[in-house]
Amino acid sequence: RNIRLISLGGDHAITYPILKSYSKQFDRLDILHLDAHPDLYDSYDGNRYSHACPFARIMEEKLVSRLVQVGIRTLNPHQKQQAERFGVEIIDMQHLQKARAIRWKNPIYLSIDLDVLDPAFAPGVSHHEPGGMSTRRLIELIQGLQVPIAGADIVEFNPKRDPAEITAMVVVKILKEVAARMLELPVDAT
């Protein structure tokens, strides 16, 4: 059965169990991860399954063939070592234009942490990191994807930090853009 979901989070910890399920449906799947942080910690505050660790678990278990991270603005030595260990491709904000040149061989799972956006565009997140994308740039990136999207998540929305509901409106817009892109390019389970 070819079911494609867009999951809305809480924190980024939801991505690991979702990908564990997707790996049973797809022999080969890649991830496009849009985030300010690589979320590759081996453990965070003693928890190997925290919001800061999902991509380490995903890569350890070989749930996907390829992980490309775009928009990264915080890469400490441990996470850099983890990225090298797992063969993760990182495109930081300084080199964002390189994201247009990514070529995919497999369907992708799209994981969007809202802190990939600059706090001016998405203040309703738990971990602000200045210097991020504009909402327009994120929409252009999604619209430019020329690969089937098997599933997606949009995570790290924190309504307590979004009193004017700016981020909530951004979430709705991103959700519509991802859904439209998913409908335009069919994906076959392998």
TrEMBL record:
GO MF assignments: agmatinase activity; metal ion binding
SUPFAM superfamilies (UniProt xref): Arginase/deacetylase
One record GO biological process: putrescine biosynthetic process from arginine, via agmatine
InterPro entries assigned to the protein according to its UniProt record, in alphabetical order: Ureohydrolase, Ureohydrolase_dom_sf, Ureohydrolase_Mn_BS
UniProt keyword Nucleotide-binding present: no
UniProt keywords, alphabetically: Hydrolase, Metal-binding
PANTHER family registered for this protein in UniProt: ARGINASE/AGMATINASE (PTHR11358), GUANIDINO ACID HYDROLASE, MITOCHONDRIAL (PTHR11358:SF26)
Family: Belongs to the arginase family. Agmatinase subfamily.
Listed name of the protein: Agmatinase
